[in-house]
């Protein structure tokens, strides 16, 4: 076996096999990472240790993969005898079952089970049943270690059959299987969004026209109604929009309105979103699209500066965005930027509503007390 192939793990979608020549009496060998994102390692001193662990990264440290699998060691010569890791709980149950057949004293049986070494239990029941390791978190190279005291000579194969492998998605949330419904649903969602975007961009069977301040765009009542309770109500009652099959959004440019529709249809680009954030915020508030409003809220928090802080403070007050309002006041008062834009701030205070002015003065007084 060449040096490169000695560390290579052969894989299918759920099966990994590492073929190993005879190990020296004291040795350590680690496989190359294989496509399921794992390493195998063997250590041999008095005992043969087999380890399974992920490639170490920030992602696996914070959110380790969760694996369910069956692992076997198969002697590749002769009658291909195999050892199968059955899991600790299964070992105890199997041993108890075997002992009950011979001994009737349950207290004595419990004493034996509680003190029986793990490797001996594995040896005892390994040839009985294929038992799986279930939902095992694999964070580092000590999380799964199989100690084998049965002597292995000649060539052998480490065989890992993955029954499931769950990882945390990049967008966060609960761990999800990399197989089955997870990938199927993802592909289905992508295809559906592409189709929706095509319906909008190519004007396929549009049944309503949206009139912006400087142009018109065709759209679909069903899509708008599904995304906005305001549109849903508009098309469910005998209003002029339903009768005339038009919606007038005169406070939006056609570019901003296109960005708004692109978001509704799941087809908006990041730069388009950033360019039209404030117009999208107004539309989200007007048409009660809460996810778009929250997305605009979070985005506006990210780049507050002296040029935009007063406008954002006004919008935060108008559209009830508490985190944005607090961040703008903190920027102006706690960081002292209010002095850098004194003239603009004075003009702003002459036009701001009384409640917002009161909040600003409260923030200033709180800051003064802190000195």
TrEMBL record:
All residue ranges annotated as the BTB domain in the record: 206-265
SMART domains the record matches: BTB
Residues spanning the membrane: none
Protein known as: BTB domain-containing protein
Organism: Camellia sinensis
InterPro entries: AtSIBP1-like, BTB/POZ_dom, SKP1/BTB/POZ_sf
Upper classification of the organism: Eukaryota, Viridiplantae, Streptophyta, Embryophyta, Tracheophyta
Pathway per the UniProt entry: Protein modification; protein ubiquitination
Domain of life per record: Eukaryota
Pfam family, one: BTB
């Amino acid at each position: 076996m060449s040096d490169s192939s000695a560390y290579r793990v052969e894989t299918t979608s759920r099966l990994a096999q590492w073929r190993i020549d005879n190990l020296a009496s004291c040795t350590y060998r680690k496989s190359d990472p294989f496509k399921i994102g794992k390493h195998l390692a063997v250590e041999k001193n008095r005992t043969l240790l087999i380890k399974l662990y992920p490639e170490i990264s920030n992602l696996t440290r914070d959110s380790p993969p969760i694996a369910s699998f069956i692992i076997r060691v198969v002697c590749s010569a002769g009658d291909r005898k195999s050892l199968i890791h059955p899991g600790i709980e299964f070992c105890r149950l199997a041993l108890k079952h075997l002992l009950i057949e011979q001994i009737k004293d349950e207290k004595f049986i419990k004493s034996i089970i509680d003190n029986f070494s793990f490797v001996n239990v594995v040896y005892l029941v390994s040839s009985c049943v294929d038992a799986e390791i279930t939902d095992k978190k694999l964070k580092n190279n000590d999380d799964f270690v199989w100690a084998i005291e049965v002597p292995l000579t000649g060539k052998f194969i480490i065989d890992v059959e993955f029954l499931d492998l769950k990882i945390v998605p990049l967008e966060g949330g609960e761990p999800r299987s990399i197989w089955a419904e997870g990938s199927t649903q993802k592909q289905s969602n992508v295809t559906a969004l592409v189709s929706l975007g095509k319906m909008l961009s190519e004007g396929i069977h549009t049944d309503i026209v949206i009139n912006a301040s400087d142009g018109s765009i065709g759209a679909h009542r069903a899509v708008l109604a599904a995304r906005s309770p305001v549109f849903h109500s508009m098309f469910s009652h005998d209003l002029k929009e339903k009768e005339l099959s038009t919606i007038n959004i005169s406070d939006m440019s056609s570019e901003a309105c296109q960005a708004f529709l692109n978001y509704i249809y799941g087809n908006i680009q990041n730069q388009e979103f950033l360019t039209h954030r404030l117009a999208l915020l107004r539309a989200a508030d007007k048409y009660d699209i809460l996810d778009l409003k929250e997305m605009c809220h979070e985005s506006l928090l990210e780049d507050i500066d002296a040029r935009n802080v007063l406008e954002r403070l006004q919008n935060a007050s108008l559209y009830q965005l508490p985190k944005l309002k607090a961040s703008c006041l903190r920027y102006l008062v706690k960081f002292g930027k209010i002095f850098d834009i004194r003239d603009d701030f004075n003009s702003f205070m002459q036009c701001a509503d009384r409640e917002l002015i009161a909040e600003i003065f409260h923030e200033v007084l709180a800051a003064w007390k802190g000195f």
